[in-house]
Each structure stands twice: as C-alpha cells, then as structure tokens.
From TrEMBL:
<keyword id="KW-0539">Nucleus</keyword>
<dbReference type="InterPro" id="IPR017884">
    <property type="entry name" value="SANT_dom"/>
</dbReference>
<dbReference type="InterPro" id="IPR006447">
    <property type="entry name" value="Myb_dom_plants"/>
</dbReference>
<feature type="domain" description="Myb-like">
    <location>
        <begin position="37"/>
        <end position="82"/>
    </location>
</feature>
<dbReference type="Pfam" id="PF00249">
    <property type="entry name" value="Myb_DNA-binding"/>
</dbReference>
<protein>
    <submittedName>
        <fullName>Uncharacterized protein</fullName>
    </submittedName>
</protein>
<feature type="domain" description="SANT">
    <location>
        <begin position="37"/>
        <end position="86"/>
    </location>
</feature>
<keyword id="KW-0805">Transcription regulation</keyword>
<keyword id="KW-0804">Transcription</keyword>
<feature type="compositionally biased region" description="Polar residues">
    <location>
        <begin position="1"/>
        <end position="14"/>
    </location>
</feature>
<dbReference type="InterPro" id="IPR017930">
    <property type="entry name" value="Myb_dom"/>
</dbReference>
<dbReference type="InterPro" id="IPR009057">
    <property type="entry name" value="Homeodomain-like_sf"/>
</dbReference>
<dbReference type="GO" id="GO:0003677">
    <property type="term" value="F:DNA binding"/>
</dbReference>
<feature type="domain" description="HTH myb-type">
    <location>
        <begin position="37"/>
        <end position="86"/>
    </location>
</feature>
<feature type="region of interest" description="Disordered">
    <location>
        <begin position="1"/>
        <end position="24"/>
    </location>
</feature>
<dbReference type="InterPro" id="IPR001005">
    <property type="entry name" value="SANT/Myb"/>
</dbReference>
Amino acid sequence: MGESSQDTQANSGDQVDVEDEGRALVGRASQRNVTIRWTREEHAAYLKGLERFGTGHWSSISKLYVPSRTPAQVASHHQKFAIRSNLLPAEKQKPSILDITTPAVQKLLAAEREKEIQLQMAQ
C-alpha cells in the first residue's frame, strides 16, 4: 500500500480518483483532472477520422477512430492542431505531435482558413 495521497492511476479517460490513506474520497473533491497526452497512434487515428469526416464531426471521429477520447477531447485536440498548423517553423519552439499531418488534412485546414478569412472580410 505504499501509495501517498498524491499517487494516481490513469483510467481510460482524463479523470482519476485520488485515494487518501487507503480511503476513497467521495464527491467532486475526489477527482482531479489529469492530462494524459495524446499518443502518436491516437493522433494518426484522429488524422484519418478528420480526412474521412472533416471538421465538426467530433463524435464520429471519437467513436470510430479514437475511442479512447471523448468528442470534447477530439475537438480540443483539433483546435490546438489547427493553431499549431498556422505557425511558421521559426515560431515553433520544440517539436510536437501536432506537427504530424497529411496532405489531405493540410488541404482541409487551408480551406478552413480561407473560409475564416472570407467571413472576416464580409463583416
């Protein structure tokens, strides 16, 4: 039992229970958000789902391609991915899993950027 109250076990989601001296804590205070980084395999599966369904279909991508992640997590990952994709190489301080992409996804992101620009110009 040598675990302290700081020790956590990762579940399939991002929430984990924290134990305090062998007693499970109850209620909201018993759970902490623990960031579980995306693996290369999850990111590759996300890219395949994005190629197939496009943006906005986070439930489908989550369910069929990245079942280890919720639709909200897939949407958040896409948001970070899109932002990172717009950076120039000199603006990237270190390599990231978000740098991995495909030509089809690059075309999709370029089309998204073009739509955003057109919407901004129309206002």
